[in-house]
Specification:
Layout lengths: L12 E5 L4 H11 L6 E6 L5 H6 L4 E4 L6 H8 L4 E4 L12 H20 L5 E7 L26 H19 L4 E7 L2 E2 L6 H6 L3 E5 L5 E2 L2 E2 H13 L4 E5 L5 E2 H7 L3 E5 L1 H12 L11 H6 L6 H5 L9 H11 L8 H18 L1
Helix pairs in contact: 1-7, 3-4, 4-5
Length: 352
């Protein structure tokens, strides 16, 4: 994807898919509040909550299924020049199923096909995820955008992402006048959004991989929204890792929340999470175990130099804000942990 399609002129008419989701809906609200954008079109097969609908303000809401050709009619009727595809379900709070795969893969195929046929569309922003890289013991210290996964996902959300990004790149090749931006988000945390990772870290007792120390990065919900907004207003074609600075270990993540680790064999993590959540959310599946055991860290150089985006929150600050303002309750208070840390340091000093 060459940089001659970036363009700095502001979008005139923007269509956002996934308007009933946190990222899609609040992005619509931000864009609708921008007086430089003439029209904002919000699309989803589900009606957003009343609170979210109020926040969307002047945006036009269309209840339609992106898996159907009607998405092309919407683009044509509103003379859309920028499409933000935020609808893909990416390991949020729903179990992966045939219906989810169809929404992700067939929906993205229809969106890209509609963009290709439309003479008005000049930009596509695709919400993707770092899950496309997979996870494993032989992974590099940092994944750059050009680094292939050590073990390509063959099923689940990871497989969906590979197919979705493939359709977006195919659009870029067939319509070289359309700038395509693919944002690979790291694990999103925040006080409002609900994801599998937020549910996992909210468990009072957190099953972790025995003998492993996963290296994690986080992306704050506000930075995820800001990155989508930035890419809409200041498009730069290409693929970009998006994550907060720094690395946080799994132990740090659990202990800072005031929770307890339960080291178990990797094969037991998924069923244990399901039991401990008591059916409130789908448990972690076996495909997620490598990530919980080894983690995944992204190189975000291109995010800063080429995309021109800088997150406000580091990975650690994201975790702390999630703990401070989210719904997780500590089992052991921060003061208790600090006391234990001081005791450990003092004991280590006496032994030297």
């Amino acid at each position: 994807m060459s940089d001659d399609r970036s363009g700095d002129e502001p979008p005139r008419s923007v269509l956002v898919t996934g308007a009933s989701t946190f990222l899609g809906g609040y992005l619509v609200a931000r864009l609708a509040a921008n007086p430089d954008i003439e029209r904002v079109v919000a699309v989803d097969s589900r009606v957003p909550t009343k609170n979210l609908m109020r926040r969307m303000g002047r945006a036009d809401f269309l209840r339609l299924d992106i898996r159907r050709p009607t998405i092309a009619k919407a683009i044509a009727n509103f003379d859309v020049d920028t499409v933000v595809h935020a609808a893909p379900s990416i390991m949020d709070n729903v179990e992966h199923s045939a219906a989810i795969k169809e929404l992700n893969v067939v929906g993205t195929m229809q969106v890209c096909a509609a963009c290709q046929r439309s003479p008005s569309v000049k930009r596509l922003v695709l919400r993707s995820s770092a899950m496309v890289y997979g996870a494993g013991p032989s992974d590099p210290g940092f994944f750059s955008e050009g680094t292939p996964a050590r073990k390509e996902p063959r099923r689940g959300y990871g497989r969906d992402l590979i197919d979705m990004e493939g359709y977006a790149r195919g659009l870029s090749r067939r319509r070289q006048d359309i700038g395509v931006s693919i944002l690979r988000f790291q694990s999103i945390l925040g006080p409002r959004i609900r994801t599998r990772m937020s549910s996992y870290l909210s468990l009072p007792v957190v099953p972790t991989a025995f003998g492993r120390q996963a290296r994690l990065q986080f992306l704050h919900e506000e930075d995820a929204l800001a990155a989508l907004e930035h890419s809409t207003l200041h498009p730069r074609p290409g693929t970009f890792n998006v994550a907060g600075d720094g690395v946080v270990t799994m132990s740090q993540s659990v202990y800072r929340a005031g929770h307890l680790k339960l080291p178990v064999p990797g094969s037991l993590i998924s069923p244990l999470v399901g039991v401990l959540q008591n059916g409130r959310l789908p448990g972690m599946r076996s495909e997620h175990t490598p990530y919980l055991a080894y983690g995944r860290v992204l190189d975000t150089t291109r995010m800063r130099t080429d995309l021109g985006f800088e997150p406000r929150y580091s990975s650690l600050a994201t975790l702390d804000d999630f703990i401070a303002r989210g719904k997780t309750e500590p089992v052991i208070s921060a003061d208790t942990w600090r006391g234990l840390e001081h005791q450990a340091v003092a004991a280590a000093t006496r032994l030297q």
